[in-house]
Amino acid sequence: MYDLATRRLALALLGDGRSMNSVSKETGISRSAIRAWQVRIDPLPRLNQATACTGPADPVAYAYLLGLYLGDGCISPHPRGGHHLRIACADAWPGLIERCRAAILAVRPRDKVYVLQRQGCVAVTSYGRHWTCLFPQHGPGKKHERRIALEDWQQEIVDAHPWEFVRGLIHSDGCRTINWTTRVVAGVKKRYEYPRYFFTNRSADITGLLTGTLDRLGIEWKQANACNVSIARRESVALMDAHIGPKH
């Protein structure tokens, strides 16, 4: 016998496009059991009963998750109702993967979270009934090809927890790097290194949400090009280091 959470995980993996054979190998569940669950919708309808959306359980975690979603997230419908929230995270950042997973659980404690391995990255995934309520920015097509704006209640959360929002954006589409330059001092060319934060996103709306929040935090930034924001002033980098830091 398998509990309800195990059944939901197996069916969610199938809904994500996985083959029955790969789901069976990953979960240890027989293909015959999975096939039976596909045919029998009872007791699975209990998973899909609509309940009123009460908003994020943890506003601080939500501000961070919102940044992650705007950068590397998507929402897709499940064949049996409800939706999948997926956040893409590079394998190189295991700390980010775990932080993303923890944020999803904090925002929706009753929704299960699982990690699907992809080539060079993972999709931190959760099935639930209210992801479209919590992220009304979802929609068909690429984010940079449609308007992205926060609802009033989302802006209130961002205003209350701006650093968490910036952290989510930087952890998704940003980085902390070491730049270098050379200067001639007393006739000798010397190399200087300095830290810098970059944020890269093709959506002018999402970039505007970042830079507007940076302005309120007193962070100086420059538009390096159409898709890149640079933070290089020493005082601003120090503030970013104190609140954001490099991914790990």
Low-confidence stretches: 41-49
User: Which radius of gyration do the C-alpha atoms yield?
Assistant: 21 Å
Beginning-to-end CA distance, first to last residue: 39 Å
Largest sheet: 4 strands, antiparallel
How is the CATH topology of the domain at 172-243 named?
Endonuclease I-creI
Spatial sequence of strands, sheet with the most strands = 1-2-4-3
What is the share of helical residues? 40-55%
Assign the CATH class of the domain at 172-243. Answer: Alpha Beta
What is the CATH H-level superfamily of the domain at 172-243? Answer: Homing endonucleases
Question: How would you describe this protein?
Answer:
This protein is an alpha+beta fold and 248 residues long. Among the domains are: 1-49; 172-243, Roll (Endonuclease I-creI). It is built from ten helices and eight strands. The chain has helices at residues 4-15, 20-27, 31-39, 59-72, 94-107, 131-134, 152-160, 162-173, 204-217, 234-243, and strands spanning 73-77, 83-90, 113-118, 121-128, 174-185, 188-200, 222-225, 228-231. The strands form two sheets. A four-stranded antiparallel beta sheet has the order 1-2-4-3. A hairpin with a 5-residue loop joins β1 and β2 (83-90). α8 (162-173) crosses α9 (204-217). The longest helix is centred in the first third of the chain and has 14 residues, at 59-72. The two termini are 39 Å apart. The model is unreliable at 41-49 (pLDDT under 50).
A few lines on this structure:
This protein has helices at residues 4-15, 20-27, 31-39, 59-72, 94-107, 131-134, 152-160, 162-173, 204-217, 234-243; strands at 73-77, 83-90, 113-118, 121-128, 174-185, 188-200, 222-225, 228-231. It has 248 residues and is of the alpha+beta class.
